[in-house]
Every structure is written in structure tokens, then in C-alpha cells.
Write a structure and sequence with these properties.
The complex is a heterodimer. Chain A contains four helices and no strands. By secondary structure, chain A is mainly alpha-helical. The longest helix of chain A is centred in the first third of the chain and has 30 residues. Chain B is α+β, with helices and mostly antiparallel strands. Classes of the chains: A mainly alpha, B alpha+beta.
Chain lengths: 98, 200
């Protein structure tokens, strides 16, 4: 069925990009100055390294076909960093803008 | 007060310095202007003589100028090391700046205490290039002593009361050691409660 195969494609793409995205989040988190996290009222740098690193490890180690729930948790952890924390720590290190 | 008493006081200070200085080899900062960035040396000589005499400087490996490396390599406790970060924000078209000094066991509450003190909508760390240009200090050696005129020096209360803290010298190849009260006595100094937030 078309719908079924579309589902499969969406999932395969998601699966293919999840691990690189997770690695990107972890590396990005590692490169930020530690006080930027405090400055933006986020958890500490080690905490976010743990969250993005742990999330990425889950994406690598758990097969989503068998462990979909855990796999999605790993993905969500990485995405929370990317959509919430990353913009904030980037912004707080950017000043001033003339 | 007699000589014996003041001698005792000197000995006490030296014991305190020895304890926090770790393996830093400190000598009088007034005698070593070559170990200070130009604005820092100028600010030191502008201090009241008795205060300037209590500031010492130690040469270090420039590769170890960052706090974590410094403390580990030279056995300086984190609570005896203070970081100075430059925070900036804009209000009514005017860029405001502040040097914020917190112990290395804490991090500056940029989005809270500093933002409120500067009275700006959004506060952020000044970028490396801008800090270096405006302060004439080397990154990694930024220090509260000798910041540009007009910049407030915000101090965490724990810094202001510290016996002795290790701060930058304006250069990466040395560190200044000075009593917190010397910083608190700077004309630009402001003690700000809650400036440093403990690192969990």
C-alpha cells in the first residue's frame, strides 16, 4: 500500500538522520562555554553533555524496530537540546550586536 | 599597635596566601609590571599604596591560563580562583557593559542578577574579539583591575570578602593574587547579591 510505504520511507529517513543529529547536538554542547548554560538558566554543561550523549547512545544502541519507545526517548532528548538549549546558549554568547 | 603585632599580621597574610596560592610562585605585583597588561599595571599604580602592596603576581604557563587547567596544575583551590566575565546589553540605543567577578565554584547569573543590574532586556557575554579590543587584555587573562573607565565591576559577595583570590593579570602568562577587599574598594566596584550561582 502506498500509505504504508510512505510511512516506511518517513521512518527510514528519520532513522538515517537521527544518529548524525544526535552526534551534532553532543558536539555542539561540548563546544559551548560552561557558564553560558548558567547564564541562560539551563541545566549545567555536564548535564546537557549527559543528555545529548546518552540520547545519542540510545539512538545507536537500541533498534527502533524492537525498542521504539526508548529510541524515541533518545530522539526527544536530543531534540530538546537542539530546539531549546542550543538557541539560548548561542544567543547569550553573541553580544553585543552593534 | 606594636611591631610584633603587625609582624604577626604579615605572617598571617603569608600563611593565607600560601594556602590558596598552591604552587604559584607569587611576588609583588608592583615590582613586576612586565607581568601585567598595560591597563592593569596602570590601575595597580593608581591604587592606594597599602592596597597595591598587597597584590602579588605569579608567572604561569600561558597554556594553563584557563581556570580549570590552572587550578588543577598549580593546586589552587577553585574557591580561591575568581573568573571575570564581560557582560553586555543594550538599553535605549546605548550599549552597557560590566565586568562580573565570581568565584570559580560559581557561574555568573547573567540572565538574572547581571541583567537586572544593567537594566537591559537581554544580557549576553561579550564576544572574545570585542572584549580583547575594548579591554586591551588577553583573552584568558581578563581581570577586574584595569577595565575600561565607566564599566562597573560587579562582585559576588564571596569575592569581596575573600582573603585572597587568584584573578587574571590581563596576560595569559601570569595571574594576580589579591585580597577581595582590594576589589571591593575599587571606585567602580558594586557588590551584587546572587551574582554567582553555585555549580551543582
Amino acid at each position: 500500500m502506498l500509505l504504508q510505504s510512505l510511512d516506511l520511507w518517513v521512518f527510514l529517513i528519520l532513522y538515517g538522520i537521527a544518529i548524525p543529529v544526535g552526534l551534532f547536538a553532543f558536539i555542539h554542547a561540548a563546544l559551548q562555554r560552561a557558564d553560558a548554560y548558567t547564564a541562560t538558566d539551563k541545566l549545567t554543561k555536564p548535564a546537557w553533555l549527559g543528555i545529548t550523549g546518552g540520547g545519542t547512545a540510545v539512538l545507536v544502541l537500541f533498534n527502533p524496530a524492537a525498542w521504539l519507545f526508548f529510541w524515541l526517548l533518545g530522539l526527544v532528548a536530543v531534540l530538546v537540546y537542539l530546539v531549546d538549549v542550543k538557541p539560548a546558549v548561542t544567543e547569550v554568547q553573541r553580544g553585543p550586536r552593534w | 599597635m606594636g611591631c610584633a603585632a603587625s609582624g604577626g599580621r604579615v605572617a598571617e597574610v603569608q600563611v593565607a596566601v600560601g594556602r590558596i596560592a598552591g604552587r604559584l610562585n607569587a611576588r609583588s605585583a608592583l615590582d613586576a609590571p612586565e607581568l601585567l597588561a598595560e591597563p592593569v599595571a596602570a590601575a595597580l599604580t593608581a591604587l592606594p599604596g597599602e592596597q597595591a602592596a598587597r597584590c602579588t603576581v605569579a608567572e604561569i604557563d600561558p597554556a594553563l591560563a584557563d581556570t580549570a587547567a590552572l587550578c588543577e596544575h598549580y593546586d589552587v583551590p577553585l574557591h580561591a580562583s575568581a573568573n571575570c566575565v564581560v557582560v553586555t546589553g543594550r538599553r535605549a540605543g546605548v550599549q552597557r557593559w560590566a565586568g562580573c567577578v565570581v568565584l570559580a565554584t560559581t557561574r555568573a547569573d547573567v540572565n538574572g542578577a547581571v541583567r537586572r543590574w544593567l537594566d537591559v532586556r537581554k544580557a549576553s557575554f561579550a564576544t572574545r574579539d570585542v572584549v580583547v579590543e575594548l579591554t586591551s587584555m588577553e583573552y584568558g587573562g581578563i581581570t577586574p583591575l584595569g577595565l575600561p573607565a565607566g564599566w562597573p565591576v560587579l562582585l559576588d559577595p564571596a569575592v569581596a570578602v575573600a582573603d585572597q583570590v587568584v584573578v587574571g593579570s590581563g596576560l595569559r602568562r601570569s595571574k594576580l593574587l589579591l585580597p577581595g577587599e582590594v576589589l571591593a574598594a575599587l571606585p567602580a566596584a558594586e557588590i551584587v547579591d546572587g551574582l554567582g550561582r553555585p555549580v551543582q
